[in-house]
Amino acid sequence: MTTEIQNSNPTILSDADLPTRLRPTEAAKSSAYGSGLFASTLSFPGDSVDPASQYLSAESESEGDDLLEEPIDEQEIYDLISTISDPEHPISLGALAVVSLPDISIKPTLSNVPDSPLRTVTVLITPTITHCSLATVIGLGVRVRLEQSLPSRFRMDVRIKEGTHSTADEVNKQLADKERVAAALENGTLMGVIAKMLETCQ
Amino acid sequence: MSALQTFLLVADHDKQEAKQIAERIAHDVENKKTTLIEVVQSLGEYINDEDPILRGKAVSYLTAVIKALPPKFLTRQQIQVLTAFFCDRIEDGGAVAGLETLQKLDRFNKALAEEVAQAIFGRFQELQSRSQSQRFQVYQLLNELMLNHRDALHEMGDESLVGIVDLMTGEKDPRNLMLVFSILKVVMVEWDISNHAEVLFDSVYNYFPITFRPPPNDPYGITAQDLKDRLQDCIASNSQFAPHSVPSLLDKLDSTSPNVKKDALNALIACIHAYNADVVSTYSITIWDALKFEILNAQEEFLSELSLQVLRDIAARLSEGVTEISDQLPLAQYLRPITRECNDQLREPQQKQAKPAQQILSSTSAASAVSFTLVVRTMVAPLLTFYQEADGIAKQRALLETLVVLFDSAIKVFGEWKSSDPEPTMENPLLEFKDQFSEIFGQALMGVIKEEVSFRTSALKGLLRLSTLRNYFQDNEIGLFVQYLDEILLKEESIGRDDLKKEAINALAVISKHTPRLIMDITFPAFVATLPETDDGNGPNYITTLESLAQISIEKDIFETLVRRLLSKLTVLLQKEQPGSAEYPRALLLTILYVMNQRDMSKDPNLDLYYDRIVVTLCRSAAATASGKATNNILADATVLDILGRLSNLIVRSLPRSKQDEVAENTYTLFASAEDFSPVPFAPSTSDSHERTMILSTYLLAGLPADTAKLPHTHPNMSALLTDITNRSITSSESGEPATHLAFLRHSALLVNKFLPKADLNLATDTVFTLLHQITEQQTPHTTGTIKAAFWLTKALVLRLAPKTTDLLTSLLSLLSSPSPQTSTTASRSFSILLSDDDILSPTNGATIRLLSKQRVFTTLVPLISTRIRDVNITNNTTPNQQNPDHIKPAHLTALSGLLSTISPKLVTPELPTLLPLLLQSLDLRTADSDSLAVRAATLETLAVIIRDNGVSVIEECGHVQSLVTRLLNTTTTNNNNSPRLRADAVKCLALLAAGQHSHADAPAVARAGKLSPLLPVKNQVLRALRFVLDDPKRDVRKAAVDARAAWLRGVDDAPEEED
């Protein structure tokens, strides 16, 4: 289905410059023997000097941290879709800046019902060139990935970012139309391309 | 019947007989009973027969006779006549073999060789219509002539060249081709081929690319690679092929098959190595034009790598013998379009093709000093201009990386540090840019906002390369870089993942190996100066500093200085009345331990000093502290004693025997005099701080050799000592501190495992049985302590596979069925003690750990546990009775999980059919206490390993797929007291199930045709249930669920749709 490469020399962001979630470092629960280098290299028994004490420590550690809820946020959505590969290059959508963190938003679907758990995820896609005919395929790929990976209370809204594509309206109509999306996903060749794009997802 | 007639009769079916007949005749000829002429004449009626087979046999007869004659028997004239005869009959079987025999003889001359060659070329026009073995014989003869009479063939010139080519044209058999290629290569290399270069080239190039695939069980053992190698040698054999070979090989790059492209590139590399340099030069730019596309739009990484190698090899060939650089050099002309292209690509250094452009620069510049100089002269100035004009830091960063690529090449060409390889005579062209580089990279590292981590990291890498490059940076310039690094480490707040600081430490560690003096002069004082006198409560900044110091103290001088400085800090601390918290002295000791662990202390010249200052002095101070005679209580802290113990242990292990004996005598006195300190064993009354010194004693004991004779209280046997320590471990389990309790337990285990003589093992075994008796008869007030003591002693015994191992294990297991829930639970938790790795009872410390001990314990216990659980299940189903209270089944499952968590999964797999039902029941465990969490966690870990190693098939064989999946799914829900870790682990197990399927999908379609995945029946159930897990409150669980769903969607194929 791919014939000629449309954009053979796109700009690529360095991996180190992509947004990532900073995990709270292990320092938070350092053992009696410090956290960093020493603890890891010397394999200290740390707190569990007695192998049988794992039963006690399992109890104490499970309380505090576990009650803390971590809601789904924009970074999590970004992590889901940024590792999808571009259909033209073996490069991720994140590195090509096709998807970017500021262009992802999560809002309550029913703003007048505050208790409703329904959420709408909006993802704006920036094609690498304005006439890219693969924009629809990329949009579908993002949609499929989100549908496979988000709970059912999430609604997907995947669109081309305004002013970045010559036929954005056409593509958006296609991506927003449930029937057309479903029909597209019945197409074996297209699904093959999308499955290949999703293979690199981590 | 004549000899000939007999020969003709037996020739087909009895080779041995035929050979004997020929030998007999040869013997007669030799003894003049008959003459060669008579032999030839006897052939008369057969050699003109119409049947070619009969003719062949007759000629073979003559050949066989000649073969059997001694080498010097035939006269020149006879040889001449025979050669003429065979040449005349060359098409008949046996003649070729006869000629092969004749040409080996000393009296066979050049003229005859030529006659034979002409006969071959003239008479075998239709060679390809003959059988493979006949063709092989002819090639063999030709090959022999090449070996023995090459001059004759060479003088025939074009006649032999064309003859050989005509002869082999159309050959297809790989065995023959191996021979043909090697004959042709001789012609290509040694003949004057100028009139026939194209014919000759085509004769071999027709076979390119080799697509031969040897049949299975090929008896000849010829691989495609063998043929490829010989063919490639031919193509590369003569520069005159270049006008034909280079364009043809470049054409092959249009092929759609990556393998063909790979063969073409390899052949091209061979040509570049073998052809004359000026020929390579002629085609260099043509090759670059063709390869440019392969590199800039790489489809396969290995093709781009091979293409880069072609470019580099051309540059290397064109650099040969060049001493002076000028723009007119062929090399300069070759590099010009290359650098121009790279220059264009690097104007936009963030775009995709900038990366391959960097690689091109890297390969060509690393080819030679000349090539490097030319690339640097054309590239560095524009790169610096792009850098100045760049409109963003990301762009600048990409340009810095390009420069770093050139620095790497410089290191390859000019060497690193003070390497002893000969240095190129040419001056390093980077020298002229030194000030600019220092400024740009220094500015990039230190002059931008601190958050630009990746930019600064690139700058740091660049400066490290420049410091590494031989004869480039002066010491003061490296010194400046070291100061930057110090500043980053000491003054800057940490940002994100602290990548920059990690790189900085690595850089200092590298520099410290090569120029330790700079680190000693600059970094070391700066770091040590930030260490406080005492822990002033300003947070543990000193930990980071100590970690940094530990990592740069690899070189011997720095190591020694560090240990000395830290020890004196410690000494000062020990004399202070207000020393602050114990964390600081512990960190100091920990740092020393870390650096000593990195070295081989037994070879350290200062070992005696460390022994005195650390083992003797500090242990003595600890003894004084325990007796209340020290200024402060630092050495009364259990964790400080633990580190000091480890440190002493490390040193004691490296000591010479005499000193180890000294340590043995002081194991309990801790080098203190009798009036200052009374040892813990046999002391009538003790305090907590007094007992704590057993931590040190245990570590000292662990470091001693097993056959030490100087251990106190071991004569006539260690019964009394063992009893004392065991009793103390039991009483300290409730009243004492955990660390002291553990020290007692380990101490007793160490004595039994390492030092107890084999003859006295019953001392320990009896002790265990006594303890167990006390527990079951409830004669002890300290049930928990007694159980622990029994388990540790058993551990010591089973690791050395003492007699009665099975009895001991069975007795421990019977504790689980105790009517007392407390006994049962404590015992069940203690099963993880038996096989867990211990820092003291370890191979490093010379503990006796027999190879099969783990297996023995496991195979003894698992069937017993399984039987017991089955009994409990059955009896509970029929009548709830008093003999099997509720706690028994969980206790057995807990014990099992304790074992599973401490043995290697390899041992688990053979027991799987027994084990799997137990594991499934473990997942159902819902007792109120936290035990069930730990049990289920251990179970999931075991399951994960089983699934990863064996795939879903083993579970299918046991018939448990559905029940396993259901239980795993139950564990993923947020109710049922499932902790986040359990939920995530259960989801990961599910993912592994499907992931194993995926690798199946790579199997040939035939193999899995018609076979549905065993997971298919549960696919929908899993996908539906995981959908809910996608909404788990914990991110890690959600992430695992996303991956698991992807694995199931991708890996578990639906049933193929029914086709009408």
Task: Explain what this protein looks like in three dimensions.
The complex is a heterodimer of chains A (202) and B (1060). By secondary structure, chain A is an alpha+beta fold. Chain A has seven helices and three strands; from the N terminus they run H-H-H-E-E-H-E-H-H-H. Chain A folds into two domains: 38 residues, no CATH class; 127 residues, Fe-S cluster assembly (FSCA) (GMP Synthetase, Chain A, domain 3, 2-Layer Sandwich). A three-stranded mixed β-sheet of chain A has the order 1-2-3. Chain B is extended and about 120 Å long. Chain B starts with a helix and ends in a 9-residue tail after the last helix. Chain B contains 51 helices and no strands. By secondary structure, chain B is mainly α. About 1% of the residues of chain B have low confidence. Classes of the chains: A alpha+beta (202), B mainly alpha (1060). At the A-B interface, helix 1 and helix 2 of A face helix 21, helix 23, helix 27, helix 29 and helix 31 of B. Chain A: Belongs to the MIP18 family. Chain A: InterPro entries: FSCA_dom_sf, MIP18, MIP18-like. Chain A: Keywords: Chromosome partition.
What's this, in brief?
Chain A has 202 residues and is an alpha+beta fold. Helix content of chain A is 36%, strand content 9%.
